[in-house]
Amino acid sequence: MPLFKNFGPLELILVIVLALIIFGPGRVARLGSELGKGIRGFKDGLQPNKPKEDTETADIENASDEA
To answer: In whole angstroms, what is the distance from residue 62 CA to residue 17 CA?
Structure first.
């Protein structure tokens, strides 16, 4: 039972336009960035064998790139 069986390109465009109207372009970009960081953090949390130092240095490098 697919939930989005009839979800086509027109509906996708409508959702994007409504999000831009409600939140504004700056906030939508920030929400996307925060969502990406959350997903990355979740993936990193699923891999317990990865050294924590690697993720900390990656976060520092990303923070310097954003500034």
So the answer is: 29
